[in-house]
Amino acid sequence: MAVRPIRVYPDPILKVVCEPVTVFDADLAALAQDLEDTMVASGHSVGVAASQIGDTRRVVIVDVSKSKLGKDDHHGRLLLVNPRIVDRRGQQVFREGCMSVPDYTGNVTRACEITLAYLDVRGGAHQLQARGFEAVAIQHELDHLDGLLFLDRVSSLKTDVFRRKGA
User: Taking the model in full, what pTM does it have?
Assistant: First the structure.
């Protein structure tokens, strides 16, 4: 459908708690396609949340299969509607970046493994277990649905946030 512009911090929509999807129609399918087109067009993104493209529905796309960190352990391209984590196990620290915070990265503590419940674009219910980088990417995107950025998860803005090279 369309590659949509990524909203960049401090855009206020990035702090909005997104609303659950209740209508599974062509408009939702169009949003899903826009998320996919936007992620692919970025050339480096492993996920995009609806709020990052200006829509406040609880929808994200995640695909770590082309990332060196996720290529060996992933579920492929995941379009997640109304996703929620039902179980978390372990902790790991990852250096995260975000298209909505383009000039910085940060060390964030996340669960090592998660169990996720979600709906597909037609309203079908699913559950999956993710671990490693895929689990981190999913948790990062779900934070967007709750109005959180990785900056909200770092322990210290002084020691855990880093300026990107060339920024």
Answer: 0.97
Catalytic hit among 19, 36, 134, 141: 141
Q: What percent of the chain has pLDDT over 90?
A: 90
Tokens 């990852």, residue? Answer: 94
Task: Please say if 134 is a catalytic residue.
Answer: no
Residues 6+ apart with CB under 8 A from 165: none
What six digits make up the tokens of 96?
């995260």
pLDDT tens per residue, range 19-65: 999 999 999 999 999 999 999 999 989 999 999 999 999 999 999 99
* CA–CA distance, 31 with 117 (Å, rounded to integer): 20
Q: Residue 130: which of 96, 95, 82, 80 has the closest Cα?
A: 80
Q: How many CA atoms lie within 13 A of 63 on its CB side?
A: 17
> Would you call 71 exposed, middle or buried from its count of C-beta atoms within 10 A (0-12, 13-18, 19+)?
exposed
Quick: pLDDT tens for 90-142.
Answer: 999 999 999 999 999 999 999 999 999 999 999 999 999 999 999 999 999 99
**What is the C-alpha separation between 71 and 47, in angstroms, rounded?**
14
